[in-house]
Amino acid sequence: MKKLNVALVGLGFGGAFAGIYKEHPDVGELTLFDTDSAKAQRVAEHIGGAKIAGSFEEILADPSVDAVHLVTPIPMHADQTVRVLDAGKHCACTVPMATSLEDIQRIVDAKRRSGKNYMMMETTLYTYQFFYASEMKREGKFGKIQFFRGSHYQDMANWPSYWMGLPPMWYGTHAIAPMVAFSDSRICRVNCFGSGTMEPWLREQYGNPFPVESALFEFESGMKGEATRSLFECARVYQEGMFVYGSNACFEWGFGDGSDPYVTVYQQAVEGKRGGRSVVNVTPMPNYHESLPQEIQHFTVGGKFDPLNPQESLKKGIFTEILYHAQFSCALYF
Ligand SMILES: NC(=O)c1ccc[n+]([C@@H]2O[C@H](COP(=O)([O-])OP(=O)(O)OC[C@H]3O[C@@H](n4cnc5c(N)ncnc54)[C@H](O)[C@@H]3O)[C@@H](O)[C@H]2O)c1
Question: Are 190 and 217 in contact (CB under 8 A)?
Fold first, then answer.
């Protein structure tokens, strides 16, 4: 199989993927670009060398580049995606895909026109928690799945200016995508409410008054789900959560992203006793490093990786970094 030449554009959060592409056995040449050229230089040095492009246009015009991964600020995603696809290259873009229905339609049209692959790089579907809950589903442990919940609480104080006052559901993907994947269905109806109040200066950029938004979804299958998202002035600790409620078992994300999830197993009510018994197990997540090419398995932990003892390595690692690295390596589909 021909190796893919990949260009990585935007090297803030995006910088974390440079090493993964560099070591991925299916990737040929890696090109880096950031409008901050010193940052591109630093990232290239950190991974032991990569080609650095002088502009975005240079990448689009380079026939040797097969695929572009965009990790640039949110307001640029739609335009840059359309330009990558129209240049005849595969495009992966970090979340959110776009922030208006018109821009989403433009991307769908560009994808069809180009015949190239597009992927919105949703990360929650590559977490240990999602893998574990999917395994429970495959093994029928949930019984009948009755309800879903999703959450993403994050405080965006002091983040770059384009975040200030962003309507929470414009970046609802981490809270919603796991439910959609789990439902084997599609959302057909939604009721979303904004809640709370924000400082006046936070309302200026997008005209959004709400720090928190919460939505109830109906799936085509008839299932229902709920997702809540907060970005400002809400003290809740960080959580990108997925919650699955079944007749025999439930999966609930840990209280914070560094804590282990809760797996509840239901024991049927016995004759003469009111209600069944629910046994809650705080469950450490296994490392699913085997699903990755060997060369990049070590990115699944923040510290040293011992292939003979991945679970032990996992405990020593930096949990959030692990997730992102693992997720994106798995997402290298194109
Ligand atoms: N889990 C996730 O999926 C996840 C996590 C973090 C961030 N993100 C997404 O990743 C994106 C980047 O996040 P961030 O925190 O690094 O943002 P940031 O604004 O801090 O950094 C963006 C980087 O892109 C560069 N840049 C700006 N304009 C550019 C252009 N025209 N061409 C090339 N480079 C350009 C900047 O110099 C900077 O290095 C955001 O869209 C965010 O939504 C996703």
Answer: yes
